[in-house]
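Entry type: protein chain
Record version: 2
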Amino acid sequence: MSTDEKSLEQVLWDSANVMRQTMGAADYMNYALGLIFYKHLSDKTLEAAANALVDAGEVEAQDVATEEARQGVYKKYYDAEEFHEDLLETMNMDYEIKPDFTFAALMDSIRKQTFQLENLNQAFRDIEQSNPDLLGHLFDDVDLYSTKLGSTPQKRNDMIAQVMTALAPLNLDSHSGDVLGDAYEYLIGTFASDMGQKAGEFYTPPIGFPAADPHCDLGPGSQKGLQRLRPGHGVRVPAAERASLYPGCGFHCLLWTGNQNLHL
């Protein structure tokens, strides 16, 4: 792990410390988990673009060795009309994030102090609309315009920028296991006392979780009946007709829609 990277627990602690002064634990869990998932999708997008361009001989592996380099290459070829369609086809993603709305791009705007909350909201909408059957309500719980983030638009803008900055050092590839599930368990376990009775309503210690079955499935003909496998449970618990993957499925959640698989 480089000096610029931090453990999942440290990143979550840092992000929670940013938010917990203005909202309850149940609320900042939604923001932390939603933003981590967005970062995961964004990082996978840059990785897929880099791999596609290296395999096509357009760039060398050393040209995409850093996140900044992958972001630059992705934007260059995505914006180029002669490469755009071929790039997306080769990447073969189940969702799409435009180069200007990746986590890396928004972090660059945060560092330059030009970040606008609407750009993050647009990124969320783009992801949901790129695969509405499965991701149509993915970020419903991440209310970027809630006064819990701040009493003014600028304060809300600054709060989310601070949270993203706290999450930025997280290298999702270096974490073994189910990142979102582990994040959920860490937050609920660490801050359960802040949640009062709510904690007992949806937290079960992770005992007997079947390692061979770390997935959610949406059976053929039941696209509106997403089923969620929660930490500590060996049964699937129906969720309200939506494709929100948290809190419990995790990043490697496998959703089924007929014979089409969505790998996240």
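Comment: Strands lie at 227-229, 236-238, 254-257, 260-263.
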